Amino acid sequence: MKEALSKTKSFLQSDSFKKYAKRFGYFILGLIAILLLACGGLSIYFNRHKTEIIAKVNTKINENINGKFHITDFHYKFLTGFPYFTLALNDVEIKDNKWPTHKHTLLRAKEIEARLNIWSLLHHEINIHKILINDADIYIYKAEDGYSNANIFKPKKKKPKTDKEKPETTIDQVSLSQVHVIIDNHLGHKLFDFDVASLESKVNYDDDSWQTNLYLKTKINSLAFNTVHGSFAKEKVLEGNFDISYAEANQKIDIKTQKLKIGSDAFDIVAFFNIGKSNSLFGINIGTDILWQNASNLLSGNISSKLNKFDIKKPIKVNCDIKGDLNVEGDPKIVVQADVRDNELSIPDGLFTNCSFKGIFTNTFKPEKESSDPNSAIILTNFKAEYESIPLKIAQAVINDLEKPIATGVVNSDFDISKLNGMTNEKILHFESGHAKANLKFQFDIVDLYINKPKFTGDVDIADATFDYLPKNIHAEKTAVQLSFTQEALYIKKIAYKHKKNIIRIDGKIDNFLNLYYDAPEKMVVNWNIYCPNIDVKQFLGVLKNSPKQKVAEKKPVKNNVNFTNQLRSVIEKCTAVINLKADKITYGALTATNTQATLQMLNSKVLLKNGKLQTSGGSINFSGSVQPSGNHYVFTSNAQVNRVDIASFLRSFNNFGIKSFSPKNIRGRLTSNANVAGLMSSTGDLIMNSMKGKLDFNVNQGALINFEPIMKVGKFAFPFRDVENITFSDLSGSLNLRGEQIDVHKLTISSSVLNLDAEGIYSFGRGTNLALTVPLRNSKNDAKLATKEERKAVREKGIVLHLIAYDNEGKMKVKWGKKDKS
């Protein structure tokens, strides 16, 4: 190594090396001298021929334009662009002939450099190698009538080529720096506005066609294909390389670029522009992987303002295709396709997780109509996601008309219904267990980008559902539901419901369900068919209670969603339910009834009963009436026909109607009655006896009074030798008017084995009894053997007749002689 360095050092110090180095230095100095002489010669040439050169430049430009070309100053740039001759033009303006009308200058530049071919220049020809435009404004204007200031350039005259013909002047390179470019198309309502920081282009010519690879860095102030709707990619910086070609034959520019940066994202773009007078069609295809918000912010304001209400968490693959006509008013045709995989989709109504789908946006949904918001649509295919942990599948959904959006599609879901608990803003239903399957066609409006009034057709199946309906404190177990939604009605095919010891099977129908559910729930009529093997009426009275009013408390803001729970609650409270009821066994306290049938109508927590009938206590009852909650009680009305029921059992079932003077063990027989009464029941469903008002007519056949204290007192006073403790009677009937604690006895007739008795007046469950008694003294023991009612009536009051008053004396019943006060 040392030996090599030593040899190198010796060579550099040798006389031969110094000799050649000296000659090489002279050669370099000679080249510099020649260069300086050449540049000086060019400068001398320019100064001597300045007038001629400028004249040729002006002539060359003006012979190709219809307008005015103005240069304030120009000079030769020494050594710049050598070996080309660089001419700098200062304060350049180009105006078309109609500038006084529209006031838009086509070109205004502080400086334009033109690098000319020296050889051509020495042959008195202008051949421009490169144009550099610095600190300039370019304004291309097109008026409503189609006139453009760019038409300043005269069309070339086609001439047959000859070998002797001089070639056309060409520009091999173009460079722009700090150039503001505006393309203002009033005919098509389009505005393109760019601040070009840098543009470099080298052009290759093929006859009248050319190709270039262009580098561009620019800020997009406006890329508006419709100025009414705003700009695409507004305020974004665009930077990248373009392969551009122009074909003179069809006057078409083709553009292709890869990894073009717009903002912080990269795009692959293929585009074409037809620039012929009769053909101004264009097309732009853009592909990228991008975040939703970034993509949305690249679109025009009318689209991005809507899309920004949505979001997709991770980048998505997007392809955008734009086609239109630069000279046609209105929006271009836009088709955006997106591929979403395992992502999160946020919408104003909530969040979809584990979301995958393919989406298409088009503003030309119906090809025969123009591209616009009303003709726009978003199409989703193969949508899979979880909404509030509920899995959803949608084969295809369409959101049509972005001015008044309507969404349609088919949704499928299969999930445990306990997942529904997280969806409600207000606690109405709480699900403990169960499973649901749904296959529904849906349609809903989108108002301010929120789902409004969703409507469904299709089927819903729920199995083994256990839930609580909190407003009514209802707990249901092992409930099965089958629903079928149609355009005409909602069919409740099957509901199997268990509540405490009650089992209910339901089917039904709601006509015009889809229209009434949101707009007029008070007009909705739910027709139910209910079959109950066993039901306890008292346990169901809680269903009628008005939901307790909740205190108004400050809440955290909640999402403005479909308001499903609030709407459901409103429908439940406002709709009318008509129920056709059949029950094998009904219990009401101590009353047990079988073979029950009735029609019930439920409206605003009120139940109307019609055409009811049941069997109980060995007889039957036909009834109608109503039950309605009122505070802590229930108001009821009843119109009942009782047919030959066992009176002791019947009285026992109704707690003896609150009568204290005798109990069901004091009487037996078959009761037939007509009752039209109203009153109150307690919160547990027990009758409040002193609240009852109305009319009651009754008749007891094959009856007996056993140890009935009022009769016994009268009998011991008037008939001490007769058996008044065990009285059989052939007729026990009356007509009563109920007034709370008191009963107006219009007529009470007793035809018995001991005596006959007629009574009228007032009987009280508390204080105030005042009954007038008519008691014939004759022995009526054998009256029952008389053949006819007329014969029994004829002998009823023969002999001595006693007139007595049964009255209240400090809570105890007393009897005295006397007649009813006629006054």
Automatic annotation (TrEMBL):
Q: What is this protein called?
A: AsmA-like C-terminal region-containing protein
Q: Report domain AsmA positions.
A: 26-186
Q: Does the keyword Transmembrane helix apply?
A: yes
Transmembrane stretches, by residue range?
Answer: 24-46
Q: Which organism is it from?
A: Flavobacterium ginsenosidimutans
Alphabetized UniProt keyword annotations: Membrane, Transmembrane, Transmembrane helix
- Keyword Endoplasmic reticulum among UniProt keywords: no
Give a Pfam family name: AsmA
